[in-house]
From TrEMBL:
Signal peptide: 1-22
Lineage: Eukaryota, Metazoa, Chordata, Craniata, Vertebrata
Domain of life: Eukaryota
InterPro entries recorded: Ig-like_ZP, ZP-N, ZP1/4_Ig-like, ZP_dom
Chief location bin: secreted
PANTHER family in the record: SI:DKEY-19B23.11-RELATED, ZP DOMAIN-CONTAINING PROTEIN
A single cellular component GO annotation: extracellular region
Protein name per the record: ZP domain-containing protein
Protein's UniProt keywords contain Secreted: yes
Keywords from the named record: Secreted, Signal
ZP domain: residues covered: 588-712
Keyword Glycoprotein: no
Amino acid sequence: MCLTFPNVFLRMLLMSLPLSCSITVPAGTFTAKCHERHFWLSVKASFLGSAVQFNVEDSTGIHFLSSQRAAECGYTVVWNHHGDLVFRASYLACYVENRRDTEFRLQVWFVNRQSDGSVEAYPFKLHCSVTEPLSPREIVCEENYMEVSIQWYIPVEAEQFRMERVIFYRPGDAHPASQSVKEAEALGYHIVATDTRLLLRGAYSSPFFYMRKEQDIQMEAVDAIIVVQLEGASIPVEISMACTKNEAVVDGLHLLWSFPLAVSSLVHDLFRNGRIRMEVGGRMLSDCEMHESGYKATLKDLTMEIRIPSEANGAQIKSGVIKGQYVQSLSVELFYMHHWEDVIWLHTQHRSFRLLHTPYVPQTPTLINDTVSSTSMFSVTLGVFPADVSLQNITVGNDTMTWTKAQYQGLHLTQLLFTNGSHAYTLHVPFSHPLVTQKVISKHYRRHVLALTFDFFILPEEEHFSYSTDVVSDLKVPAVPARLEGRCTERGIVVLLHYGSEDVQWELYVGQRRIDWELVWLGGYKLKSEDDHLSVELPLYSPGMTYEDLSLKDLVAKVEVSALDVLTLKVQHSLVQRCTFPVRDLLACLPEGRMVVVADTTRSIPPVLPNSTTLLDSSCTPVATDSTRALFNFSLDSCGTTMTVEGNFLLYENQIRYMQTFLPKEDPLIHVDSPYRLTLQCRYPLNNTRTLTLHPLRNATIHRPSLPWKQT
């Protein structure tokens, strides 16, 4: 059932409106039970609005419970280890309908304020009864108050019965403090007598509470005597209580909490210890379950030590941020009850409801790098985080994105959920992703770097923290063999030696000759060294160049290059590069003892017709001509070629001539010699004519009428 209201003053409404509702609540939203002398009502975390409140109702009306009033009256509101809201009320709390201390009824209102300002109120009628009679003395240590009730047999309805005074006494005080009941209630105490019991309750740190140590354990206590007037007689009733205030500590992989077995202010003379009973996270633990789950309860020097495994079901990790550092505290919702007997009290039940917290400890999230370089995919897992931590953003490189945007960006981000409510995050990113940085670190390896920042927030405090890391993976680059490459240019041929990924020292050969600095200087080679290759440019008319075809149209040149492994002295790679070059003037001295000449005869004055030229032997005419050039191809022992010896060389010489049939009268330089004469020379070493030389005729000097032009 519920009531829904707009923004109004809730308390006044709850006192005046009828209790009715038509809103359907999801099953399991509210859970009510009777447990350990308390009403329990829990509300699922998912159902809670922006603000919540509990009110109680009795025959006098609806009562608002402030924090102070709740502690005085025996009410507690806490969060359990699931994040649900838990309302707990003592059977002996204010506004509870008590029927002879055996049957108890309570009307509760849960008020839920939504984010839009509307208010919903849900009424609950709770009914509990005790299955076992209340013990002679029962002490309750709640989160926000202490309560003690003792058994007595004086009927409240007895004539001349009244509670007169309360006397508080503390160790070391010279005089006890005597207060009337009304004065004590004004100080925050709740004192009441039922049919069978006398009760004292107060919030922690109330006046006359004091701190004491038992077995080096800090405790808060109050010692009091209630003076009862009955039929003219004053009857003092001793009524004291004490609760531990120590927090838990981390002991290895356990949460350790201790309490004294016997509190001196509560035990009188002969003490006989009874058993303890323990619950964790609202679940009662049997001796067998405690043993199997790793829980330990050990008596040590009159101190009971309870160890709870940090991974146990019911242990909860609370997150926080201190100075930007992510921190964690281990907490356990613990209930324990201790029984004992002494001379005065035949049976005492001491109940404690404690939400234990360890101090906050800095924590660095664990990054598990499952990247396998051969898959070319980053694979990382970050965690493990408790349920109160959520991922807000992720930054890869310099790009910050939400979870949804990350999926669109090609990042595979998922959340891993574990049975204890904790979780982790996995991220898969291919090496080829644009946000992955790549760098060549050697011939054989390429480094991939994934720069990550995870931004988290903690609920419900909405604190923020970040975790940054660089994930590095070196990928072995597939072996790339060295290779030779040839290119044609306007001036010659370029040969490139690509090193590849092989760790080899190379030497280059042109034909049978190693390319060294002497050859580079003599041939006019141009060398250029880069990180991944070496280039050598060979001019067209340089040593190492061979020529396969010469015509009036073009020249086909060839270079043969080989790469030799210096360690093995074996040729590993070779290249034959051919290039075709346009021809204008050229003299080729071929190794088989022939001359091939392309000569432009039109550059003389006056111009000479190419098809009218001959060699020294006038029967040797061009093998081909065009409008400006003539092509001669003849052996060195023909066409009037002469041979002389000059030092260590054989000099072969011939001429291209043009004989006129008449002499122009207007030319004052006419003589009987031919007007056009181009001298051709080939020089061979005396002991080897198997060499080839190539010369550009355009560098020749042609005179009018003519002078010999020698080309060697």
